[in-house]
Specification:
single chain, mainly alpha, globular
């Protein structure tokens, strides 16, 4: 998309998101977030675990989730931002990579997974049969249910945090 001049890595991402979303760092509203920031994990987006964990599932329903809806819910809060301006610190962000994927979806007019399949994997001769797995292909009675993905994850977040083996969890998120 960059080579075809459909995407400028240094442009404000809101150019590609309007009118659906307007992403602004609440502490640094005059500093633009760019696609380069998202790809380098330097956007200033931190962690809002309460919202992120709601989107995790142990089945194949992730293919039915609308990425735009997930992002709108996430950015409906000012929680989950690093106290530094975009472009100044590397901090891995699943939400940032999801936001980058959503921008590709908007520009391509198709779901990100279809774009990757059609524009990257298929031209390379890579098919969906060559790698990965789907949980629906396995007999469920042989799968061990991961504790993280139980039905009451929000209620048991403290149990999850204990498994991190961390003495302090640094976040502005409210649990």
């Amino acid at each position: 998309m960059v080579e075809a001049n459909h995407l400028n890595l240094d442009a404000n991402i809101n150019h590609y998101l309007a009118p659906d979303l307007n992403i602004v760092h609440p502490q640094y509203p005059n500093v633009s977030i760019t696609m380069r920031h998202l790809l380098m994990h330097a956007s200033g987006i931190g962690v809002n675990a309460a919202v992120e964990l709601e989107s995790y599932t142990l089945n194949d329903t992730f293919r039915q989730i609308n990425l735009g809806d997930v992002l709108k819910k996430y950015f409906n809060s000012t929680v989950g931002w690093l106290p530094i301006p975009p472009g100044n610190k590397t901090f891995y962000s699943n939400v940032g990579t999801n936001l980058a994927a959503y921008i590709i979806e908007r520009l391509a007019g198709m779901r990100f997974e279809h774009y990757v399949q059609e524009k990257i994997l298929k031209p390379l001769g890579i098919t969906d049969k060559m790698g990965g797995y789907r949980l629906s292909n396995f007999d469920q009675k042989y799968l061990v249910r991961n504790y993280l993905y139980n039905e009451s994850i929000s209620a048991e977040l403290d149990v999850f945090l204990r498994h991190l083996n961390a003495t302090q969890v640094s976040s502005e998120a409210v649990f």
